[in-house]
Fold each of these.
Amino acid sequence: MKKTILAAAAAAGLASMMLPVVAQAQVSPPETQVNALEGLFGKQASFRRSHAKGVCASGYFVGNAVGRGLSTASVFNGDKVPVVARFSVGGGSPKASDKGKSVRALALQFTAANGEQWLTANISAPMYFVSKPEHFATFLQVRTPDPATGKPDPAKLKAFSDANPETLLQAGYLAKAPVPASYASANYWSTNAFELVNAKKESQFVRWQFVPEGGFVGLTDDQLKSLPDEFLADELRKRVAAGGATFDFKVQLADKTDQLTDPTKVWPDSRPVVPLGKLVIDKVEAGLGGACDKITFNPLVLPKGINPSKDPILLARPAPYGVSLGRRLTEAAK
Ligand code: HEM
């Protein structure tokens, strides 16, 4: 059947238009990426295949004049923009420990008064763990235990890491960073680059971050020992009930020399970081579920005035998010 279609396309002079699509699909199929998550973490029916453990929250965002100077996006107009949020723990297990050295994450859906939406999903590390979409599945597969030994094959893991040393950078960062004491005391980075465009059509590439108002607070080893595996959601509920959790939304401004297409490489600290607004979380769901659950935080849903960069990792995200959404929404409820 496939041969017939290709032959027909070639006859119609369409082969050259079709081949790149076919080639691309073979490089990094989203099903393979999601299957690799299931291979490592098990098939967790009805849960997200990545960042399975999380809590829904909501609040609002207020943009400032610096934001309006850099981008025409309606979210910066100074009005309160309602936000649906989801805080989560990295990995594909809904039972992941809140004490683990994985990332924490903050995903947001902004809905401006003009109906425009902005979806973004950010992690508590300034870099991502792979630089190319085609490495995503392999990164997970070489860490997946071999059924015969119960352990990953050390030779495969070493060969992949030696060939792609950038895939060790995030784990190195997380190993040194203290475990966050609260979902509201971690920094959350976009890792991918985006382009801001203002009313004069001036362009500025940025990476953004949500910075907790009280600064990063981590746990000491003694505090870690005294805590149960589940504490983050309740801690956030108590904190928000007592007055809310606030983050500064900041962007790091790229220099013309900075690469925009590799989220494993952080930009130099010398690049300016400027605040464009504040995010306030003022409600947390009492239990599992809530408005965030049916959303997939596709990072290419952007308001006018924010454009995606050409980062292949960023451009590859919507497809596996859709696959995971499709699986979890059609499986038996939790
Ligand atoms: C090729 C690269 C990537 C793949 C294959 C991938 C895959 C996935 C999948 C399958 C989900 C679950 C989606 C759902 O069920 O709604 C997800 C969620 C998520 N991803 Fe990615 N991802 C990639 C890149 C990134 C990057 C670069 C970041 C860094 C900021 C990131 C951060 C997140 C976060 C925070 C969530 C949870 C969002 C939520 O709470 O719903 N991902 N990812």
Note: The beta strands are 53-63, 80-89, 104-111, 117-123, 188-189, 194-197, 203-212, 245-253, 273-284, 306-308.
Amino acid sequence: MNTSVIDQDGEDTIARMRRLQSERRARSSAVMAGVLSAYITTPRDKILEAELDGLIDSFLLAQQAVDDGLPRQVGRLREGRALTLTGQSGAGKTRTLERHFLKREEFNGYGDRNADCILVSVSTPSPCTLRLLGMEVLAALGYETSRRLEENVVWDMVQSQLALRQVRFLHIDELQHVLQTRNPVEIGKVQDTLKRLMQNRTWPVWLILSGLPEIGRFFADDEQVWRRSRHVTFDDLILEEDASLVCRLITSYAQDKAHLSTDTVMGDSFIARLLHAALGRFGILIEIIQDAIREALLRESEALTVEHFAAAYMARSGCLPEENLFTAESHWWLIKPREGLVHKYAGDGVKEDSEHCGRNEGKQPKPRDRRNP
Ligand SMILES: Nc1ncnc2c1ncn2[C@@H]1O[C@H](COP(=O)(O)OP(=O)(O)O)[C@@H](O)[C@H]1O
Ligand SMILES: [Mg+2]
């Protein structure tokens, strides 16, 4: 039976409902696009900005010495320096660096192979050898070849291409892949090669190295380079220090970008669960908030609530409903956010995680908020 009624514009009821539905969806995907692209500035940006200023200043100082024709007198001044940015996976290193590289005028043209940018960025291949890392840098410099180049040839070419393309700053992301080879010879070769790039007499290069915390010590055994390195760390967030930052993130994304009210997701007990779900990582926290907002928009809700976070968390972790750390009544701090999927399939013969929520109740102390002992 056809129940639709044709209105004066020739649109029947069902067609109108479909049109309204797609308008609604278009609105919410526009909102979501704004939520996903928004960059949130925190005090960490100021620290990184100051360190990048310092790195650029040291380059300009060296350049000045060369321009003044005093290369012999200035000695070490002419050598490049290194800046490391370390933090756990999901802390926000890659996105933050990219943001600063794109924003700074000194790095105009960053990311455009046809522009003459003085900064080039690469991601360390995995698994990594000195040769493969060199090939990656060559490709980023716009030098493509299908020939298999030997390790020493690759790095000679890297050095000459850096000079040819006037590249002064080299960013290497995920440098921990070098350490993960667990091959001391290969690690030593990468260390020596990077040091040589910095100390090259005709074209020294300034390095920005990012990755997991262990790369903060990449040059620790080399006194010369160590003294010429600076370090920025992106620490995990903790409730007693970062609760107000978490509130600001929720407000910026949910209220400002998605026009959702947030009254029920601002309390300390909720924020403690949210931080635990995100393993304290700034970037993961942002992603969970974004996912929860998507849930709220899909359900056409006017407020962002715990249920939206629970749904987002369930989709991310694959946890059982009773093990959702946003809704678990007790012992939520024993739930391990990364192990939901392992536990879910435990009954199907997959090894069960003996430390998972429920079985070791009471073994770990509940995290305490030191502000309210
Ligand atoms: N300041 C920020 N504002 C908005 N989103 C961010 C910010 N920092 C990180 N993110 C997001 O967090 C997630 C993880 O960041 P990423 O840079 O990949 O972390 P890492 O490189 O430390 O593993 C990404 O989705 C990224 O877009
Ligand atoms: Mg990264």
Note: Residues 13-37 form the longest helix (25 residues).
Amino acid sequence: MSAPSALVLKCPNCGEVVPHRVLRGKIAGKDEIVFEGVVRCSKCDAISNVVTREPKPIVVPLILSWLDRSEKTSLEFSPDEDVAIGEELDLGDTRIAVTAIESAGRRVGATKAKAVDTIWAKRIDQVRVKFSVNKGNRTVPHDVLAAPDEEFEVGEIVDLGKDRAVVHHIRTRIRTMRQGRVRADEIVRMYGRIVRERTSR
Ligand SMILES: [Zn+2]
């Protein structure tokens, strides 16, 4: 591990908690990350020798649900960081929300990261919109992936890859819409029919 180029520290000279440029130093430590080095205060320019310690991040097992699948992965936390149901986190480029936490063999609402056995989470940066498409003599279910705040409108033509389909009506948790638009995460199911391409002359 290489030393950082700057650290936020309390200056021994002026007492301010401000960024300090690292002039030289090294990182070591087994259970903790220990920085030992020489820094310059960005406020008063005083140069000091410092030793800082912070707990090493821990790796917590995480089960991520997405569509019909669950995937085992993990996420790094600072040991004393709080983890709570409903909390939103970044897992790489994916935004996730914590749905369950197991600690000491039972489900809890919140706890410190170091007490967590497993976190369950779901992906929240995309939702699946169910779309029943009438293809003449049969209805075929499709899944349309969308951002939660992306809107769908009755009359809109949706690209299904090979086919395109027009939205006839949209069922939400509270009503069936025969006109207007609604957010993807409020849709229970959309209904529509395949659009026949016309060759223009
Ligand atoms: Zn200072």
Note: Residues 11, 13-14, 16, 41, 43-44, 46 surround zinc ion (CB under 6 Å).
Amino acid sequence: MKLLPFVKWAGGKRQIMNELLKYVPSSFNCYFEPFVGGGALLLELAPNKAFICDINEELLCVYKCLKWKKYYSALKEELRLHELNHSEAYYYEVRNWDHNISFKTLPIEKKAARMIYLNKAGFNGLYRVNSQGYFNVPFGKKEKVHIFDEENLDALHDYFNHHAIYLRRGDFTLIVPHVKKGDFIYFDPPYDTLENKDSFTSYSKDQFGKKEQIRLFECFDKLAKRGAYVMLSNHNTKFINELYKDYHIHIIHAKRMINSDATKRGDIEEVIITNYE
Ligand SMILES: C[S@@+](CC[C@H](N)C(=O)[O-])C[C@H]1O[C@@H](n2cnc3c(N)ncnc32)[C@H](O)[C@@H]1O
């Protein structure tokens, strides 16, 4: 069964999947995705061995629940409860859980189910937190929500549970000591801001600005020199072209659906950068 992402994630890669697949090496050892988000490429490739990482703690709770049997059935129970209780008032009640000091110590299946519920019931599948780190996406105005497809979720559990998928919460550089020659890394960071355009980059309270893009380039360069296959997505900006000028830069067109201003949705140039032909 084909695996599908369990959340709608800003910057999700489903619409450019065919383009991305053209640049995936025909064979590699371990797969690394250090900005995994909804994991569209991970789930498309479904490798036997992978190392995935993201800075978003609650998102990692979902992956952990999908992997480990001891959390998985509790996760489904929690999801059913959210579906049953759904209303505008309930949405805001769940949204505000993170204002409570005990939120940090909630069982991981509760944090994971909340993440999926807010993603499906909130406005446009956005994940956004304010400067204090509190989730602040408004209600999505849906009377009823279907927050999980049980067949797909079971297939995801089966995949994560039966394969060597290593999960870490944290900065993308966590992968560096683990990468070896012949491994494949896909970097899908928050994108560089388009000149003269607002674009969506606030996935967490830590912004991903130019300094972070440079830090990422240094990591790309280091792993490329180590003999790994490295691929990266970003906006087609002057800054990114300049940074990666010694690598292969392929321009593609993407329809971007998530933007805070609906009139700014549309065709956007992106790049896929590789260190190999
Ligand atoms: C463009 S999204 C990835 C989208 C994903 N490929 C998909 O298909 O859904 C970028 C991700 O990077 C994560 N992120 C932001 N800063 C990070 C950092 N310093 N290290 C690791 N992950 C980070 C965000 O939480 C977000 O999930």
Note: Strands lie at 31-33, 49-54, 164-169, 184-187, 229-235, 248-256, 266-274.
